[in-house]
Design a protein that fits this description.
68 residues, 4 strands, 2 helices, alpha+beta, single chain, 18% strand, two-stranded antiparallel sheet
C-alpha cells in the first residue's frame, strides 16, 4: 500500500493520527511525516480512514499522488 502526502497542502491538523497513529507523525515543523514501514503495522482500513480524515485531502492511498 502506497501513501502519498502533498506537503504543500498539509495544514498539520493531526486528524490522521486519531485513526492510524502508527502510520504518520508530525515532523519538526508540525506537518505530516510518514513513519517508516508504518503502513505495514496498520490495517488497510485504518490507512484509508486516516487519508479520508485529512481536512485538506493532502493524503492519498494508492499509486496516484494527491491532486492527480
Amino acid at each position: 500500500m502506497e501513501i502519498h502526502i502533498d506537503h504543500r497542502s498539509c495544514t498539520g491538523s493531526g486528524q490522521r493520527t486519531l485513526t492510524a497513529p502508527t502510520v504518520s507523525t508530525r515532523d519538526d515543523d508540525g506537518y505530516t511525516a510518514l513513519v517508516p514501514y508504518g503502513a505495514r503495522t496498520a490495517t488497510p482500513r485504518q490507512v484509508t480512514q486516516a487519508a479520508l480524515s485529512c481536512l485538506v485531502q493532502a493524503i492519498a492511498v494508492g499509486n496516484d499522488p494527491p491532486g492527480a
